[in-house]
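User: Can you recover a sequence for this backbone? Please restate the input before giving your answer.

Assistant: Of course. Working from this structure:
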């Protein structure tokens, strides 16, 4: 009997675990559950004899791959796979996959929810501002970016997008204005919603030069990764522009300094919350389990990222 470990430091909703189990039961696979583990050693022990692994933002390192002697496939139930050591997976003959699109709506709803929250002064009782009529720039027009665009249009915002990998005509079809450069996106947008992945090219790529181009009343909304921000330069923007605000799904490393100096101009989730809905957990979890069964039974490698 094949064994599938679901290792989630931040657990899925119980309904998602139940549906993952259903998929695995049907295939006659065994579900092994490791939730809320506090030490990597628990993960290393649990992975030792499993054939497949489902994770969220849990780090799949060389050490994990070395400990997982029977592992054939790891699926990151989510979009960003910067938590997987792809080289280690490939060297260990482990197929790595993600589940693109499955939790995008949840992330987009949080992005817009945080935009409203900061526009209303974090609900401090004072007069805030509205989103209607403002411009929002979508930096990377992928699955989440598209949902953000749609919701923002519902708010009456003008939506712009920059994504060199997406055909301009496809962006226009959504009623979104494609812009030619990242600089143009930032200089045109009061709200900027980030959707770039974290990789060697993008880490620390959002800094003073771009953020300082934003018009008055600038708000950066980050539901991507904290690593894409150059935090030293972020602090400089905060210090030089008292109109600049930053909301982020997971706090930056410099959160204490921001909290101390720039009260009322930020909001950070205590834990990554973008995909933390029952719906997103079910979508991503069931997709991950189904991809595992389809790979092991039929060799289907769609969504392979290594
Ligand atoms: C993703 O990349 O899919 C999101 O950041 C979700 O991450 P999570 O599964 O840790 O909530």
């Amino acid at each position: 009997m094949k064994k599938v470990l679901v290792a989630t430091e931040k657990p899925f909703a119980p309904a998602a675990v139940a549906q993952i189990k259903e998929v695995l039961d049907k295939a006659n696979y065994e579900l092994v559950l490791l939730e809320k583990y506090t030490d990597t050693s628990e993960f290393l022990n649990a992975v030792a004899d499993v054939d497949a692994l489902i994770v969220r933002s849990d780090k799949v390192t060389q050490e994990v791959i070395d400990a997982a002697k029977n592992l054939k496939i790891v699926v990151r139930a989510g979009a960003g796979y910067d938590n997987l050591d792809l080289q280690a997976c490939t060297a260990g003959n482990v197929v790595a996959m993600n589940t693109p699109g499955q939790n995008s709506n949840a992330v987009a709803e949080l992005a817009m929810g945080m935009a409203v929250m900061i526009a209303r002064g974090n609900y401090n009782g004072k007069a805030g501002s509205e989103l209607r009529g403002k411009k929002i720039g979508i930096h990377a027009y992928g699955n989440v970016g598209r949902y953000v665009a749609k919701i923002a249009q519902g708010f009456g915002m003008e939506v712009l997008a920059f994504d060199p990998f997406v055909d301009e005509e496809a962006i226009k079809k959504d009623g979104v204005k494609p812009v030619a450069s990242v600089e143009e996106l930032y200089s045109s947008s009061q709200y900027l919603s980030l959707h770039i992945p974290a990789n060697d090219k993008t880490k620390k790529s959002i800094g003073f030069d771009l953020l300082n181009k934003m018009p008055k009343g600038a708000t950066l909304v980050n539901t991507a990764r904290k690593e894409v921000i150059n935090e030293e330069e972020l602090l400089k923007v905060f210090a030089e522009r008292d109109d600049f605000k930053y909301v982020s799904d997971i706090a930056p490393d410099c959160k204490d300094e921001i909290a101390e100096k720039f009260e009322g101009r930020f909001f950070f989730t205590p834990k990554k919350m973008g995909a933390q809905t029952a719906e997103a957990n079910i979508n991503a979890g069931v997709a991950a389990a189904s991809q595992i069964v389809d790979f092991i039974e039929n060799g289907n490698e769609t969504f392979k990222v290594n």
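That completes the design. The pocket of 3-phosphoglyceric acid is lined by residues 10, 56-57, 78-80, 103, 272, 274-276 (CB under 6 Å).
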